[in-house]
Amino acid sequence: MSLVRRCSRTACGRPAVATLTYVYADSTAVLGPLATYAEPHCYDLCAEHSERLTAPRGWDVVRLSDGSGPSRPSGDDLEALANAVREAARPPERAAEAGGSGQGPQVTGETRRGHLRVLRSPDS
Ligand SMILES: [Zn+2]
Questions:
Q1: Kind of pairing, strands 28-33 and 60-63?
Q2: Which of 70, 94, 111 is the last residue of a domain?
Q3: How remote is the CA of residue 26 from the centroid of ligand 1, in Å?
Q4: 14 is in which domain, residue-wise?
Q5: Measured in angstroms, how far is the CA atom of residue 44 from the centroid of ligand 1?
Q6: Do residues 82 and 101 both lie within one domain?
Q7: pLDDT truncated to tens, each residue of the chain (124 aa)?
Q8: Helix (H) or strand (E) holding 37
Q9: Which domain of life, per UniProt (predicted)?
């Protein structure tokens, strides 16, 4: 277990600088400051992948300031929003998963691809 958070993209081992949270109920992807803990719907991204981020079709991307941008007047409000959507996105079966083999957060490649495959087929 490393204390350094890494980018969750396949074949990318750079240190993570931001956390992406998928809010399925609102079809919104929220990119904000690095989360203090990992959750199934959160993915850590390095600076490069944060810049390149694109949302699936029909989704909105909300980018939260990390505090370094003085042009944002309501950073605190936006951070509160990010926390709120993380709470809302928390799946009900999380407790069941946590009681398993003690292998840590479920951020495996299979899990991530499974989510994306679902997102890419909104119709037909
Ligand atoms: Zn990366």
A1: parallel
A2: 70
A3: 25
A4: 1-70
A5: 8
A6: yes
A7: 556 789 999 999 999 999 999 888 999 999 998 887 767 778 999 999 999 998 889 999 999 865 554 444 456 777 777 787 787 777 766 555 555 455 555 554 444 444 444 454 445 5
A8: none
A9: Bacteria
